[in-house]
Amino acid sequence: MSLVEVKNVRKVYRVGKEKIVALNHVTLSIEQGEICCILGTSGSGKSTLLNVMAGLERPTKGDILIGGVNIAKLSEKQLALFRQKNVGFVFQSYNLMPTQTAIENVAMPLMFRGVSKKIRTKEAIKMLKAVQLQKRMHHKPTQMSGGQQQRVGIARAFVAKPKIVFADEPTGNLDTHTTKDVMEIMVKMARKYHETLIIVTHDPEIAEYADRIVTLIDGDVRSDQKNISILPAEGEEPPQPQQSEQPQREPTSEAGGNKT
Fold first, then answer.
1. Would you list the DSSP string of 23-83?
2. 120-162 pLDDT tens trace
């Protein structure tokens, strides 16, 4: 069953007299529990697509349905409440609160939902253990490496059991070894809780972690394919990632131009 439906979505930005087409009548659907990668170079429109799917930006035209709710029609207040209840985010730059510990950062989505401090602390601890940060729970972001901070970000994204987790270039600031660790942890979490994970990246190697790869070029979907390398044989369960021991074209527009 489709959890996310993008229907004929168009996004146009105005810069002076110029119209920059970021998304050009994009249509796609994403299933519950699917790990989907939106792959594209800079200027392809991939981040814009993530933003409109997540309700961070409104499409110029078209509809975005999540669980049957057309978020393109919601008010700003309704959108904020919808994201709070249904969406988690993993950011390239981590976006952790610098004055708060790992536990406090992870517990924040539960605090916004009105969960008691005792319960949200318990859940945050459980999630930090799941991302192998049991020795860093009381550390603040400046006391952690980039990979450790991103693990905190992953724990925060999944702690409230959202329907969807959006990850925007989640390994963009990490080295190769740490990238592998972070991707394996994030995919493992999504599979464990049967949550939909939508990853935006420019890196084909990151795309290989997904069940499905949607390639965007100049605001158009140019290919939409299942990732054959990880498809299970008939009757088998999808493969589970192994836990690591350590943590184009030129842009175009209606008047010349595009947007990531």
1. EEEEEEEEETT-EEEEE--TTSSHHHHHHHHTTSS--SEEEEEETTEEGGGS-HHHHHHHH
2. 999 999 999 999 999 999 999 999 999 999 999 999 999 999 9
